[in-house]
Design goal:
The structure holds 2 protein chains of 2 kinds. Chain A is mainly beta. Chain A has 1 helix and 16 strands. The mean pLDDT of chain A is about 90. Chain B starts with a strand and ends in a 17-residue tail after the last helix. The chains are: A mainly beta, B alpha+beta. The interface of A and B includes residues 30, 32, 35 and 55 of A.
């Protein structure tokens, strides 16, 4: 059994059966009174953030979560299939759980999958991925303005804003945290 | 660019190639008013190859501005002393290692290993002995120690500014507080008296608002203080969650007249024995001090300490002794008096708009 002394950013606990991760916490203690830990908790299932105040020393139920690094195999229509390269175990993750993460994934890429009671509840892609542009307006030679961008579609269907010099067939480095273009990669 | 902590200057040289960032060098050349030109450079000391270390001292003190904050901290300490010295208060320094750290149920003290001695949680017992000794106005910037208190507004080792006035009531201590904090603000903020906390501006100059705990419960929580007072956990939960965030939002505020059971060293209010003559001040929802119209009756004081000691034992908390010298001072005779204890680091963090009080402390607990 954990208690409030274990609370730190990223600590995962169960509240009414739902796993929550601590995103922010503050020790509060009125003058000469009971101490509390005020927290902001993010639901690992629905993603919503709630406020919860715990009495200092209160017992907490640790969420039975586990993160595993797995390799993306393919999309079977309903699910994306991933494989644990250690024991070859395969897991399907629904597109509901994946949200937009699928747009960053090429076959063979390694991701971190969060499991709650052995059920996948979230997929974290690598911070940077490299994707090839399949479609974009032709670039304008000689345009040096750095503020001007245009949309480009990549092989996974992800659309990012790119500088004008990017052409179809270029490979791009993408920051998956912001879904944004970082640089063009030499083929 | 050269920097030695007090100023920076530029050096122009033809022989720079072997210098790295962080090198301590001696430059001899001609000063043209802006730059040392035609400099001959001698390498003095070269720090490690990884300088500046990402989590190192140079980055914290120089790049993150803690060195500058420490200048403001020193200015605040000088200002506090000037304030009290001008008002004929005597600066005192009482022991940090004491036989009893106080019996408050919500304070946990550090015990010295192998000895029946503790680090103080506040200098209150010792300062009251000085009052009994005929020192009517005293103050001290005391290091205090409270186990387990760590967060954006707490450090287990911190500086408490504590002062006492004999022959005065709690209203006098509130007026001291108003004047001191606005005086500090003017000194640190170039004449300004507003601070920004939690997205709003709070005015520190002029008379602060006064609100009783009973009124605060009714106004902000729609609850009766008197109904919650027997359930301390609920009382404080309502206070922390529903009331404190509203306190001192535009103007600083004193929350006064606490339930009688929540002030073991304050007198009861003469006109209402259900509440104690205790106050706390709030700036932008943050509590900055705790003051009392002091209890001077030795019989009542002993009864309360015995009650607190028993409660600590019943709850399985560390068993602290009763400080007989403190009670002896009350028996000898304490003048009617008022006192206040203000968290110096916390006020400095508010005035400098620091994210955490660790940012206004030379070396906070997390970096020990």
């Amino acid at each position: 059994m954990a208690d409030t002394g274990d609370i730190k950013k990223g600590f995962k606990m169960l509240i009414d059966g739902v796993p929550f991760a601590v995103v922010d916490h503050q020790f509060v203690k009125p003058g000469k009174g009971q101490a509390f830990i005020r927290t902001k908790l993010k639901s690992m299932i629905a993603g919503n953030v709630i406020d919860r105040t715990f009495k200092s020393g209160e017992k907490l139920e640790k969420a039975n979560t586990e993160e595993r690094t797995m390799q993306y195999l393919y999309d079977d229509g309903d699910n994306l299939l991933f494989m644990d390269t250690g024991n070859y175990e395969q897991v399907g993750v629904s597109k509901e759980v994946l949200e937009d993460v699928g747009l960053f994934l090429l076959e063979g890429v390694k991701v971190d999958i969060m499991f709650f009671n052995d059920r996948p509840i979230g997929v974290t892609p690598p911070t940077f991925v490299e994707l090839t542009v399949t479609e974009t307006e032709p670039g304008f030679k000689g345009d040096t303005s750095s503020n001007t961008t245009k949309p480009a579609t990549t092989e996974t269907g992800l659309v990012v804003n790119v500088p004008l010099f990017v052409n179809a067939g270029d490979k791009l480095k993408i920051d998956t945290r912001t879904s944004s273009y970082v640089e063009r990669v030499k083929n | 660019m050269l920097r030695d902590g007090t100023a920076s200057t530029r050096v122009a040289t033809r022989t720079l190639a072997s210098c790295r960032i962080g090198d301590l060098i001696e430059a001899r050349g001609r000063w043209n008013g802006e730059t040392i030109v035609d400099a001959e450079i001698t390498l003095g000391h070269r720090p490690s190859a990884t300088f500046p270390a990402p989590d190192g001292e140079w980055v914290r003190f120089q790049d993150h501005g803690v060195a500058h904050t420490l200048e403001r901290r020193a200015c605040a300490m000088r200002t506090v002393r000037a304030f009290f010295d001008q008002r004929a208060f005597l600066e005192v320094d009482t022991p940090l290692v004491v036989p009893s750290p106080g019996l408050d149920l919500h304070l946990d003290a550090f015990k010295l290993e192998g000895e029946r001695r503790y680090l103080i949680t506040s200098p209150e017992y010792q300062m009251k002995r000085l009052l009994a000794g005929g020192l009517p106005r005293i103050y001290q910037l005391a290091r205090c120690f409270r186990r387990g208190e760590e967060g954006a507004r707490h450090e287990p080792e911190f500086v408490m500014l504590e002062w006492y006035r004999a022959f005065a009531d709690a209203e006098a201590a509130r007026e001291d507080t108003e004047q001191l904090v606005s005086f500090l603000a003017r000194e640190l903020l170039s004449g300004q008296t507003q601070v920004h906390v939690g997205g709003g501006a709070v005015e520190l100059a002029g008379r602060w608002e006064r609100l009783t705990v009973r009124e605060a419960f009714t106004r902000f929580a729609g609850r009766s203080m008197d109904e919650l007072v027997d359930d301390e956990e609920r009382f404080f939960r309502v206070l922390v969650e529903e009331i404190e965030p509203h306190l001192g939002r535009e103007r600083a505020l004193f929350l006064t007249r606490w339930p009688a059971s929540m002030a073991s060293l304050a007198r009861l209010c003469p006109d209402d024995q259900s509440v104690a003559d205790r106050f706390e001040a709030y700036v932008g929802g943050v509590e900055i001090c705790n003051g009392f119209g002091e209890l001077i009756d030795p019989v009542e004081q002993r009864a309360r300490l015995v009650r607190d000691q028993r409660a600590r034992r019943e709850q399985g908390l560390a068993d602290y002794p009763i400080d007989e010298r403190f009670l002896g001072a009350l028996e000898e005779g304490l003048p009617p008096c008022t006192g206040n204890a203000l968290g110096f680091d916390r006020v400095l963090a508010l005035l400098t708009e620091a994210r955490s009080i660790a940012d206004v402390i030379a070396i906070p607990r997390a970096r020990l």
